[in-house]
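Lab notes, practical 5.
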Amino acid sequence: MTSKTMFLNLQLRIILISSSTLSLIVDVENEPSRQLKKSTRVSIINGVKSQPRNFYVRVQLPTDNLFCGGALIDPNWVITAAHCLDDCAADQIRVEVGDFSDDEEIYTVYHVIKYVRHSSYKPGSRPFFDIGLLKLSEPVTPPRANECVSLMLCPSTDDYGLKLAACGMGATNRSYPTTLMEAYFTKKILPINPFDFRPSSPDLIAVEPIAPFSGMCHLDEGGPLYLFDLDSLTPLCIMGIFSYSVPDPGSNPGERCNGKDFFASVPEMYAFIESTLLFENSFA
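Output from the prediction step:
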């Protein structure tokens, strides 16, 4: 099967998935301006309702109603964006685990006893090496025997292509979802232009949406970007962690989620992640 045929098949599959959900692509122009609120209709911008992704977690921060996404990579460890941990002590952070595709799910809450950020992490509106690891107070127990809730890391970028997806529970410009949403991407070759700001940085992965105007948004930070199987749409490994978006030059003032999405590269920081877990787990 050629790459073009694979791409067309994936587009068709996404359209079919989208048509089976309830009004996921929202005409925000027809909605009156109002305070952000929970809604079952909106999400990740123009995403689709996700299948169960048991590796996805919600990282609750000490500020009221503020959270980041994250992913279980080990029963005791969660990966998220390093900038989510700015000005937080470990004991102020809680991690919610459960099936976020079900809005009636009761989540299990875990305490965080420690976090580790990459030594080259640099904060700012466009952070560098934006990956942090959270150590939980106790291992996550799978909901069913012999079920794995964590997802492995992608050790290299060799499999870049048409098989990227990301999930989250972040906002559109006006609303929040009540269930986990998913969007599909292809890898973007970073051009040298003033709107990308860091076009050649190896710690970043830039993506383009397959569905028009689809992408990540506020409170999606820390959520995973993963390779998935084209036939089953089953996630295979974590390729990146959502870091930030850069609005397109033609975006309206105040539009934060209509542009380029950048993920911290897991393969680039693979050695840091693996060595941290090996060292910390040796004391468990």
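Observations recorded by the TA: Residues 1-8, 14-43 have pLDDT under 50 and may be disordered. The chain has two helices and 15 strands.
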